[in-house]
């Protein structure tokens, strides 16, 4: 049975799905505090463990560390946007290094255009959404890093409909956060969209990278 195979061969991936999906339904629960913060970080944290156990070599280390830093960002965002954003920024830098090490040999003109658009438009849109809110410049600079990550992912050799699309979902999730901060999106819309887009993007990125790296080594991708 597929679900038995998931439990047997990919328990950390199953744990991530349980944590990530369930967090969406408890994110506004009254329990709050440290438990809810850890619950939030568990979704991507288990993806990091999954990547660490299922990959080898330097590229495997990069994806595992990038996911770990994003999980720390998830937790610390509840304390400070700047601290959480710092963890995410370093995680994105590691992801960029991974994608640049695995650039696609022959990208088409449309693929290069999509990558350039993600790189340039992401910080521009973030600036327009947050100006003149305090620290809008920080949002724009951070979004530049996110856009660079997505551009590198889109033009990498990793599956575009997993890793590239996951990175785009990450961009959209962050832009909705900034739109909510700038008053362009109601809180209710943000509450419904931000976490599913973010976690779904991270799930696609993790599984897409892991499957490719395992395939390189002649291992099963399960």
Automatic annotation (TrEMBL):
Protein's UniProt keywords contain Nucleotide-binding: no
Transmembrane spans: 12-31, 37-53, 60-77, 83-101, 113-133, 139-156, 163-180, 192-213
GO CC, alphabetical: membrane
Keyword annotations: Membrane, Transmembrane, Transmembrane helix
Subcellular localization, as worded in the UniProt entry: Membrane
Main location: membrane
Keyword Repeat: no
InterPro entries: TMEM86B-like
Domain of life: Bacteria
Membrane topology according to the record: Multi-pass membrane protein
GO MF annotation: an example: hydrolase activity
Family per similarity comment: Belongs to the TMEM86 family.
Protein name: Lysoplasmalogenase
Biological source species: Qipengyuania flava
């Amino acid at each position: 049975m597929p679900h038995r195979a998931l439990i047997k061969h990919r328990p950390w991936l199953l744990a991530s799905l349980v944590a990530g999906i369930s967090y969406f339904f408890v994110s506004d629960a009254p329990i709050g505090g440290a438990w809810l913060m850890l619950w939030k970080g568990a979704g991507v944290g288990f993806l990091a463990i999954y990547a660490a156990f299922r990959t080898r070599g330097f590229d495997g280390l990069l994806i595992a560390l990038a996911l770990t830093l994003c999980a720390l960002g998830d937790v610390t965002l509840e304390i400070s946007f700047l601290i959480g954003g710092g963890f995410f920024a370093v995680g994105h830098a590691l992801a960029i290094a991974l994608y640049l090490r695995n650039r696609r040999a022959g990208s088409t003109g449309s693929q290069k255009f999509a990558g350039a658009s993600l790189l340039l438009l992401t910080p521009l849109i973030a600036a327009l959404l947050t100006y003149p809110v305090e620290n809008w410049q920080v949002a724009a600079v951070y979004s530049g890093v996110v856009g660079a990550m997505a551009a590198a992912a889109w033009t990498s050799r990793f599956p575009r409909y997993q890793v590239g699309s996951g990175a785009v979902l990450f961009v959209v999730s962050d832009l909705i956060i900034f739109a909510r901060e700038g008053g362009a999106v109601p809180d209710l819309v943000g509450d419904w969209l931000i976490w599913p887009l973010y976690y779904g993007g991270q799930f696609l990125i993790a599984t897409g990278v892991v499957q490719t790296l395992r395939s390189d080594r002649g291992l099963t991708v399960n």
